[in-house]
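Title: Comparing notes on inverse folding

I've been comparing how different people in this forum approach sequence design from structure. To keep things fair, I'm posting one structure and asking everyone to reply with a full sequence. Here's the target:
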């Protein structure tokens, strides 16, 4: 299983850092530009989808092999390149990004391509929609031709996911998996529900349409009342998943950066959409405080982000090795949408960026990044490791000139509220039966890590 074997430590790594690696001065835009350009280049060495005979939008797989990346992570990677373009002005990757985002829309034009059905989770689809949202909010050039606009693609995903709301168990929310034949269909997890929450909040912000905000409120309320949210000693904990088999009476006690990140991002958009509603500001602050407590451990100085659930034990899988990219990006955008958060977020992004850079000393080129920002190179490398460093270092360049656009503030992507509404969203669709083994580790994570991380790693016991 890849996330155990990939964690071999390389004792020499620390020594090599003396002569190799990246030199970053976080206070210099030129230095950030140069370092992120190298990080993006090295990340894209994993991608060959734009070459003749390859499939645009796909990273190496399938996930039965060791060096594999699920479909969702490719969507996340293209989003990180849109962000990179905004942070630095370097448009080198824009054509590759555009080609991939256009190629993977699928026949229903809603990021549910048939090749991915056997793994399709609400979260997987959401990450491609986040990329399309980043494109719309940045006025990234539309793909053109007969490809719907970026924002229409997001609306199509939203319209598809709306039909997945499930009142039959746990009083609402969405199941992780779209199709009932997929393992994990029994779970309702934070990244799926929180991913959908973020989509709704960002659509409300971009289009100004209150219906999306109403949906975001409905989703937040269900999640907050479920065991996914827990407040103890004044701290908010956001757990990973709950199980419909027992009507969601308990919860898997895992805390991941991207779960906090997606709730943070959605709440920040809602704060901004409501023109500064104090309730949403409090929610933003509660999530941030929870994230600071867990993911910025005082033992590493209190400002360096850590995926504490898997980094110390060195058993993060390829999905988990990318999660800090999303919290980094979403914290950065939060400083713009909720200006009162700027002063606490920026020191954390800046220190994390410096820490991320200092450990990029691995691989044959002597500059590949590992997962642990709080230590020297941990002997691992991959798309996620590069993306995390790229995202947090780029995030130091966040500024009001690249605040997410909306229709009101110059966003040019033309919406279509009915996009994709003729797509078949029936979760009971039956195609060929997929076995559990086939599915193992698919979608974004959870099922496997629940069983494997137990005993091996730090986890929170309340
Ligand atoms: C594919 O994209 C890379 C950048 O990641 C670029 O250097 C290369 O020229 C592209 N290849 C083709 C065939 O377009
Ligand atoms: C689906 O897979 C087939 C076979 O590999 C490939 O030709 C096609 O381009 C893929 N479509 C997408 C959208 O990835
Ligand atoms: C607002 O969004 C809802 C939900 O998708 C849609 O039914 C409605 O037509 C939209 N309204 C406008 C004015 O676009
Ligand atoms: C909403 O975000 C914009 C863009 O960053 C910002 O200028 C504005 O002050 C924010 N609104 C509120 C109420 O904070």
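Reply #1:
Here's my take.
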């Amino acid at each position: 299983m890849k996330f155990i074997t990939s964690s071999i430590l390389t004792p020499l790594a620390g020594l090599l850092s003396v002569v190799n690696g990246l030199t970053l001065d976080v206070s210099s835009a030129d230095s950030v530009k140069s370092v992120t350009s190298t990080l993006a280049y090295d990340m894209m060495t994993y991608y060959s989808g734009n070459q003749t005979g390859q499939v645009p939008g796909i990273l190496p797989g399938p996930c039965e092999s060791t060096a594999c990346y699920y479909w969702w992570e490719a969507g996340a990677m293209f989003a990180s390149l849109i962000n990179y373009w905004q942070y630095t002005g370097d448009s080198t990757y824009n054509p590759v990004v555009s080609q991939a985002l256009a190629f993977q829309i699928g026949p229903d034009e809603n990021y549910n391509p048939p090749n991915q059905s056997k793994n399709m989770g609400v979260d997987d689809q959401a990450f491609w929609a986040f990329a399309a949202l980043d494109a719309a909010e940045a006025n990234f050039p539309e793909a053109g031709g007969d490809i719907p606009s970026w924002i229409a693609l997001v609306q199509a995903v939203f319209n598809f996911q709306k039909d997945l709301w499930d009142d039959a168990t746990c009083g609402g929310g969405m199941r992780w998996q779209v199709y009932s034949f997929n393992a994990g269909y029994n779970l309702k997890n934070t990244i799926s529900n929180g991913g959908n929450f973020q989509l709704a909040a960002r659509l409300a912000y971009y289009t100004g349409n209150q219906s999306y905000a109403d949906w975001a409120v409905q989703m937040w309320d269900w999640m907050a009342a479920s065991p996914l949210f827990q407040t103890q000693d004044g701290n908010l904990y956001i757990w990973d998943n709950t199980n419909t088999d027992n009507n969601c009476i308990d919860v898997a006690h895992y805390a991941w950066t991207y779960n906090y990140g997606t709730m943070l991002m959605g709440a920040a958009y809602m704060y901004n959409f409501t023109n500064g509603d104090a309730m949403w500001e409090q929610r933003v602050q509660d999530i941030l405080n929870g994230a600071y407590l867990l993911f910025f451990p005082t033992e590493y100085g209190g400002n360096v982000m850590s995926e504490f659930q898997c980094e110390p034990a060195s058993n993060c899988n390829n999905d988990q090795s990318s999660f800090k990219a999303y919290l980094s990006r979403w914290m950065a955008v939060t400083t713009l949408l909720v200006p009162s958060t700027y002063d606490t977020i920026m020191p954390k992004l800046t220190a994390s960026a410096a820490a991320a850079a200092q450990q990029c000393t691995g691989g044959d080129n002597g500059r590949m990044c590992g997962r642990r920002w709080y230590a020297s190179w941990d002997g691992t490398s991959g798309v996620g490791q590069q993306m995390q460093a790229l995202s947090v270092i780029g995030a130091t360049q966040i500024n009001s000139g690249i605040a997410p656009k909306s229709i009101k503030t110059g966003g040019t992507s033309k919406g279509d509220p009915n996009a994709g509404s003729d797509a078949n969203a029936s979760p009971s669709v039956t195609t060929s039966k997929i076995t559990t083994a086939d599915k193992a580790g698919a979608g974004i994570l959870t099922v496997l890590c629940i069983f494997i991380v137990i005993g091996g790693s730090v986890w929170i016991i309340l």
